[in-house]
From TrEMBL:
It comes from Bifidobacterium gallicum DSM 20093 = LMG 11596. Its EC number is 3.2.1.1. SMART domains: Aamy, Aamy_C, BID_2, CBM_25. It catalyses: Endohydrolysis of (1->4)-alpha-D-glucosidic linkages in polysaccharides containing three or more (1->4)-alpha-linked D-glucose units. Residues 1037-1100, 1107-1170, 1177-1235 form the SLH domain. It comes from the Bacteria. This is Alpha-amylase. It is an enzyme of class 3 (hydrolase). CDD domains: AmyAc_bac1_AmyA (cd11315).
Amino acid sequence: MRKKAIAGLLAVATMGAGLAVSVSQPEAAQAATRDSYSDTIGNPSFEAARNKYGLTKNMRDGSTLHTFMWSFKTITEHMPEIAQAGYTSIQTNNVSAVKDNSELGKGNWYLNWYYIYQPTDTTVGNYILGTAEEFKTMCDTAHQYGVRVIVDAVANHFTSDFDVIEPAWQDKSLFHVNKGNISDYNDREDCTQNQLSGLWDLNTQSKEVENRMADFYKQVVALGADGFRYDAAKHIELPGEFGGSTYWTGILNNGSQYQYGEVLQDKNVREVDYANMFSQSSIGGGGVTGSDYGQEMRNSMNDRSLSARFFSDYRMGTSPDKIVTWIESHDNYCDRQSEKFTEEQVRGAYATMNARGETMTLFFNRPYASGGTQPWFSEKSKIGDVGADDWKQPGIVASNHFRNAMVGNDMNTVNCGGDQCVMVERYKKNGSSADDGLLVATTERGGSSINGMSTKLDDGVYTDEVSGAKLTVSGGKISATEIGPNTVAAFYNAKVDTTPISSATAAPNQGVIEDTKSVTLRSFNMANASYSTSEGASGSFKDGDIIEIGGSTGSGGTVTVTVSGTGNNGKQVNKTFTYTKETVTPVDTLTISGDGVSNNTLTIDLASATSAQLEATYTPANATVKKVTWTSSDPTVATVSSTGAVEAIKAGSTTISVTAGDKTTSISVRVTGDIPVDQMTTIYYPSSTYGKDSTYIHYRVGDGAWTVAPGEKMSEACDGWVSKRITTGGKAVTFDFNNGAGAWDNNGGKDYTGKGTTLVVEKGQIGVTVPCKTTPDPVVVPVSSVSIAGGDFSLTEGASKQLSATVAPSNATDKVVSWKSSNATVATVDASGNVTAKKAGTATITATAGGKSSSVTVTVSAASVDVPVESVLVSPSSLVLRRGESGQLSASVAPSDASDKSVVWYSSNPAVASVDASGKVTALKAGVAAITASAGGVVSSAVSVTVTDTVVPVTGITVDDPADGKLGLQEGASKVIRTTVTPWNASDPTVVYSSTDPTVVKVSADGMVTGVKAGTAYVLVSASGFAQVVEVTVSPRKTVFTDVPVSAWQASDIQWLADNAISMGNGDGTFGFGKSLNRRDMAIFLYRLAKLNGDASAASFKPSAADYARFSDVKQGSFGAAEVLWLASKGVIKGFEDGSFRGDKSLNRQDSAIYLYRFAKVMGDASASSFKPSAADYARFSDVKQGSFGATEILWLTSVGIVKGNTDGTFRGGNNLTREDMAVFLHRTHNHLNK
């Protein structure tokens, strides 16, 4: 029988494992000719699809789904849902060849995500995402649905492992070498020219590198990409920096239509320059990441707040259209900066940010069943699988549709009833509600009423996409029901299909079955979800249920899994996925041979040799062997590598074993003598760099082969140091250090080299002084026995049992227990000893530690017989409800002993009547809906639910202010009458005001009463036939100033101050016309204006000792002290650095603008809180520059008409403010606050 040596297995595996596919030369030649913009926006088929789903024309105007770690096939499968969910673009990961880590963690997220950012070549395809052909298919499918594709481009570096870089790139002139890792991220040269975390940094000054990378990105565009996100962009110098670099200029000219860079904000990053560069790189623009804004979003979630202030400041000195914003990025999640936030928190913050529409937004798709209250990485989905379903949750989808429909509209963001509720208004003010909208989001802290709030939307009726609820705007006021907690509501008139997305899938959605395979069944917004397999298994399932396949399928066969159910639109969903059972040829015989092996024994004399090479051979030659595993029962005597290389350590005996397939064989190893001191080298390294348990050394002796990366783990030598003893035979050793996860210390690319008995590396220098005190070798305590508690046991199919093993003696050196099942088709056992029964039969469960084993037998019996559901009966048989009412349905399942009696409720028209998991029906709008209940795959007869509209009549009206129904005014003074209509949800709460004598008292439509002349008149306040009367007595003006010219244009404003007791003038009857205003008088006037506007805190304010301590020159009882200190307590005034207020100092126009802006915010003005000056705002005044002190405050006052500047286009902020101009500003401020 022919034998096959395992020595060649590694090479064969390497050839078969790679997914990288080099793009052919004809495609590369075509690459330069594809224009993404013309190929999409200029393509009638693409445009028809884009318009069907309402996606934005410009990528920057839409939202982007970050399909992190989804395979190309998975993205293709879900493309219809992505388009339906309103995502203008998707962003996939780096598509180039990367370091293959597929054996580590077998597809687990946590152990693989980092490697997608470790390129090894400029070819398309890798083990995480798939092949070049699959990438092209994905792009073609995206374009069929009007969706565009952004590719994550790693243009700064390659992997840290030089040995796995493709030979064509293994030229160190193509990298920045001999420079070491970045030490100061705020030093431009250090940040852009040195290595990031030990990764091989591309030589971006090299034209060869520039041309290769430019060609690669053109190839990616030729395959269908429409844009790029450049990873670590701030680590690449800007054009003209450091050697006159042209790298960006070369690679950005690739035919894509939108490009942006990951530029994490810090000192000296030049993010605005990067933003401008990317914005000008493509026809559709581009920009940079708003990392500081993302942090602010997470701050808002940390505070359980949706305060408008979190959303309004993008924290970057560039326009919003050059910024990409997110709630969390993949780095934030994977670095545990955001994983604690729940899906609901992310949803509320994202929907708000998204609805504003000023930046391109990126929605990161988390791994399935991970984050929030769930594990960080549950590993219930693997790399390549679709992540959590949050990306298509109705609130997120509604925010996408809302955003897309509002492109070009004005925007206003305000809070509603507190920071637990935020409202984003999008409007055109053209008299039509068809193109306006309002999105509301709330936190878990409770809902809020927006009823009665003022709005900028045009009058009309608006519908919430999520719930179907209505919102009415009349006269600039909102009429709507309360918004519940953890809610996103998008009120607008949708122009695309808004049916909630329903889906069913299986994960993974393809693959090879080695023995059996676990498949996770996924269901989203589905009724009657069920599955079936070609192996005969079937049944209903809940989202996240796991089935095992492959157990009854022979070698080389296929297994299909079909998932089905009823979607929200009543349509049947049915998908089938195919898996292939691996062809397995078992190992018949396995033997060990090699240097000095005789009669299954190997003897090594340390005085003459320290190593030996073993070889394992198996028959037959075509046996299926995935991995050959070598172990030593006592690694303190001799170790064995993964390739069979034995390294003798000290005198003693050990057993070397090898496993291939299901066979294991062993030889005895006897080590004698001692190693000559000059034949060994001990290398020491600080444990503070990578940790005492996570430091690896990657080395070679002399001109020999390097160890397989990451190398061999170093062990703790003493406090602060790890070490590794290497048999060198007196030769020099070349070595690097790393953490096993991509961070490297390779001496700046030069490697470390030395020889001798001791080498100590510290701060890049090699010394020879042993840093640890000499201690004797540790005593190795062998394992004497392993026992499993409980003995043999039985389980039924699907059940599990946790086993525990005891290792004796308790102080044994190697107490790590490994578990194994003799028949995984009957029962599996995981690394912790948890046994899961799969099918009837028996299996032996073995626990092994330190070369000793113990076993128990598990007997698995068939699961109980499934009793199918025969019928589901719902009562009552019909319901008639008024809008807002609810009714209860109940379902009985027969027979009573049915296996699956869990009931799922379904409404044919959830916009009319919704039904919850308990059968409670809520009437939402007039119409008819059919409610059904299902259990065990059986659906009940439909229950008819008829919903009728409800008219809520007005039952009364009360006057809240003045409460006694009497009001006194001076001539020219004004006061708002405040009323309450009951009930709060009356269908028509309109209040009408009228005066019995307009020559004495006039009243506006919103209840503003103004005294015209001395006398008495009555104001009639009515609503739907209910009325109240307010008696208004107008007294003559008490104050007329002698120095105010009748012709002065400010005269009416000055008189208004006097009429409302804000300014009483001077003792001599003058106003002080033409004189400068001092700081104390401004404080007094603002305080009185606050009281006029009903601020209770001003009226009740009494300065405390702490208040008087604010300013050294504001003394207790002094004129204006209370007024100054109230404003200081509100943050309106802040005094000088020496602790003084300087009340007699003249106030200039700039400072007055700042005071008025802060005052408006204190009075609750939302437009002041959310204001961000535009280019048009800065164009108002020639002397108000962007970023200058007070610019925002001045321009806000200008935008609302409080200040207007001078006729020469200046504001003259340094000029003193006159008292008459102060009168104008205060009067206009009052009018603005009372709009």
